Amino acid sequence: CVDYRRLNQITTKDAFPLPRIDDIYDQLTTATYFTKFDFKAGYFQAPLDKSDRPKTAFSTRDGHFQFKVLPQGLTNGPPTFQRIVNQILGPN
């Protein structure tokens, strides 16, 4: 587990809105089809820019590593993932 609190403090926050659950339920009332997606590994499918990878570096007894994909714990993780989902599933 990597503690990203110091990195999160100096990160410019992404203001991308996350959906409100009551808005989602309102949209479901007019839906004809329902689908379930398993986004369990969703964060780990979002690539990190090469210049941002060193910011995620950590060490273990086995060596030094850095993430190539979006790890859990970064302040902009949820809005980044939501933006990707909207781009894939959105009406555009």
UniProtKB/TrEMBL annotation:
GO terms for biological process: proteolysis. Keywords: Endonuclease, Hydrolase, Nuclease, Nucleotidyltransferase, Protease, RNA-directed DNA polymerase, Transferase. It comes from Rotaria magnacalcarata. PANTHER family: REVERSE TRANSCRIPTASE DOMAIN-CONTAINING PROTEIN, TRANSPOSON TY3-I GAG-POL POLYPROTEIN. InterPro entries: DNA/RNA_pol_sf, Rev_trsase/Diguanyl_cyclase, RNA-dir_DNA_polymerase, RT_dom. Residues 1-92 form the Reverse transcriptase domain. One of its GO terms (molecular function) is peptidase activity. The lineage of its organism: Eukaryota, Metazoa, Spiralia, Gnathifera, Rotifera. PROSITE patterns: RT_POL. This is Reverse transcriptase domain-containing protein.
